[in-house]
Amino acid sequence: MEVKKAYKFRIYPNQTQTQLFEQTFGCSRFLYNRALYETKTAGTKFRKTPAIKEIGKLKKAFTWLKAVDSIALQAAIENLDDAFIRFYRKQTKFPRFKSKKNLVKSYTTKAVNGNIQLEDNKIKLPKVGWIRYAKSREVKGTIKRVTVRKNAAGKYFVSILAVVEHNYNRNNTNETVGLDLGLTDFLITNEGSKIKNPRHLKKYEQKLQHAQRTMSRRTIGSSNWHKQKIKWFASTKRSLMPAGIFSINYLAN
Asked: Which of 9, 30, 185, 187 is the most exposed place for a label (fewest CB within 10 A)?
């Protein structure tokens, strides 16, 4: 059976690649918002196929759209389609326009004819070329799509979705394990195995409070407010999933 596997790595684009990322973010947002505006104005149900066909006409009117990955532009329309599907199913509210001021940005591209490749500690993306990434493990399977994301701290990441063939044979031992969640110890099994409480919140609480107080003194929307928001976000994005989570996985299996 086919199993989807996701990988996330930090990437280190040069200045030219960073500018192209920002341009692709902007173009994707432009098409998303334009298609959403036209749907709201017409008062009709959103249709993905005509919206994707419209991209060709828009490239003639707005030539700067040609500078970025065309698959990423189509993905922007597909993202809007997914948002409308969830809305029609009453799972979410009506789609909202994407703001230029949003610090978190992303776009998605798909693997077609070898346009996405991995080699050593570099990844090749359409229009962007080869980029160095922090390789922490091997990517297994066939790459299907890649999402480039910029977080609020200004760091860039790639999320890779791959498909791998997997034959899963689980031995039914009919055995159970008792787990007890506590305060002093995070988790204790009936066999006496313990996982210590990492107390991450207490460790970073003072840093978070200081960053929040500083941001509260800034004028909302100002450049200093946005700078402090980046610092605050960076302090909240400390890794809260170290060995403890993997220890739980080990015990559960």
From this structure: 185
> Cα dist. 194→28, 135, 183, 202 in Å?
48, 31, 12, 20
DSSP 14: -
68 vs 76: CA distance, rounded Å: 12
- Predicted confidence (pLDDT) per residue in 197-206, tens digit: 666 656 666 6
Q: For residue range 168-185, list pLDDT tens digits in order.
A: 666 666 667 777 776 676
Q: What angle do CA 156, 159, 165 make, to 5 degrees?
A: 160
> Looking at this protein, which amino acid is placed at residue 94?
F
What are the residues whose beta carbons fall under 8 Å from the beta carbon of 237, sequence distance 6 or more? 151, 153
Q: What does the block give as tokens for 140?
A: 């297994």
Q: What residues have CB less than 8 Å from 144, skipping those under 6 apart?
A: 4, 110, 111, 161, 162, 163
Report whether 95 contacts 136 (CB < 8 A).
Answer: no
Q: At what angle do helices 70-88 and 15-42 cross, to 10 degrees?
A: 40
Q: Is the pLDDT of residue 105 over 70?
A: yes
127, 73 in Cβ contact below 8 A? no
Distance CA 37, CA 40 (A): 5
Classify burial at 72, counting beta carbons within 10 Å of its beta carbon; exposed 0-12, middle 13-18, buried 19 or more.
buried
Please, what is the Cα angle at 123 between 120 and 125, to 5 degrees?
160
What is the rounded CA–CA span in Å between residue 253 and residue 250?
A: 5
Query: Taking a C-beta distance cutoff of 8 angstroms, is the pair 12, 131 a contact?
Result: yes
Number of H helices, E strands in the chain: 6, 10
Q: Are strands 122-125 and 117-119 parallel, antiparallel or unpaired?
A: antiparallel
Three-state secondary-structure class, residue 86: helix
